[in-house]
């Protein structure tokens, strides 16, 4: 059960180092943390994985080498959980989310999108963050077989007609411009209805 019903759910996906965290942090800053929360499917996964394997959860959350060293095993472990219950991590992240706008920052598999679309029809929009391999490499990405060619990275490469695509090569002005539509949508959905004297009278008739 969630603490309150959301008004908009933005389902983000993108390759590693495309800038999902960067872009979603920026949206949250523009909207405010009171209006918008960021839900990371990988957070409960990393927490449980760290507990079971005696690892440092905080370091797994970071963008450094520690996470990369454990990524392949975490993927395998997460897949075994999802195999039994595809909504396992989705249900965990929505628990306690109280803001009207939810950003799910790391959808990776069709089952992630399907879970949200079936639980919250009418509220979801899918957003793809894209950056060239060259840009991603400048941010520290190196192709790793078994990760970059596996479902965790490629599960949404085909078969999804994304509602929004954000190109994130590093130009802040260009990025800001692309976010305008998403920010307007979020503001529209979260606006309180405006009651004028006329509308009150006509409703009362
Ligand atoms: N538009 C941008 N301008 C400057 N730095 C960026 C931009 N987008 C991403 N980065 C940086 O690139 C790195 C990877 O981005 P991140 O958001 O962690 O990617 P992902 O979550 O997709 O793996 C981070 O250090 C981040 O700060
Ligand atoms: C095991 C993972 O959940 C690890 C994901 O960690 P992050 O979401 O931090 O990864 P990037 O932002 O792409 O670098 C992947 C999975 O397949 O579930």
TrEMBL record:
It comes from the Eukaryota. Pathway: Isoprenoid biosynthesis; isopentenyl diphosphate biosynthesis via mevalonate pathway; isopentenyl diphosphate from (R)-mevalonate: step 2/3. One of its GO terms (molecular function) is ATP binding. Keywords: ATP-binding, Cholesterol biosynthesis, Cholesterol metabolism, Cytoplasm, Kinase, Lipid biosynthesis, Lipid metabolism, Nucleotide-binding, Steroid biosynthesis, Steroid metabolism, Sterol biosynthesis, Sterol metabolism, Transferase. It is found in: Cytoplasm, Cytosol. The keyword Lipid metabolism applies. ATP binds at residues 15-21, 139, 178. It holds the Pfam family P-mevalo_kinase. GO terms for biological process: cholesterol biosynthetic process; isopentenyl diphosphate biosynthetic process, mevalonate pathway. Catalyzes the reversible ATP-dependent phosphorylation of mevalonate 5-phosphate to produce mevalonate diphosphate and ADP, a key step in the mevalonic acid mediated biosynthesis of isopentenyl diphosphate and other polyisoprenoid metabolites. This is Phosphomevalonate kinase. It comes from Ameiurus melas.
């Amino acid at each position: 059960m969630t603490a309150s019903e959301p008004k908009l759910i933005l389902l983000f996906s993108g390759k590693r180092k495309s800038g999902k965290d960067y872009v979603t942090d920026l949206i949250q800053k523009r909207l405010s943390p009171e209006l918008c929360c960021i839900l990371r499917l990988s957070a409960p996964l990393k927490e449980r994985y760290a507990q079971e394997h005696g690892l440092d959860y905080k370091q797994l959350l970071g963008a450094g080498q520690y996470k990369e060293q454990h990524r392949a095993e975490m993927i395998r472990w997460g897949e075994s959980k999802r195999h039994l219950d595809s909504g396992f991590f989705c249900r965990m992240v929505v628990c306690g989310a109280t803001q009207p706008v939810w950003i799910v920052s790391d959808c990776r598999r069709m089952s992630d999108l399907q879970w949200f679309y079936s639980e919250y029809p009418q509220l979801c929009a899918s957003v793809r963050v894209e950056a060239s391999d060259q840009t991603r490499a400048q941010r520290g990405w190196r192709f790793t077989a078994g990760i970059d060619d596996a479902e965790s990275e490629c599960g949404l490469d085909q078969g999804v007609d994304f509602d929004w695509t954000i190109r994130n090569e590093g130009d802040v002005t260009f990025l800001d411009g692309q976010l305008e539509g998403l920010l307007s949508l979020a503001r529209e959905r979260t606006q309180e209805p405006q009651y004028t004297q006329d509308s009150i009278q006509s409703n009362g008739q």
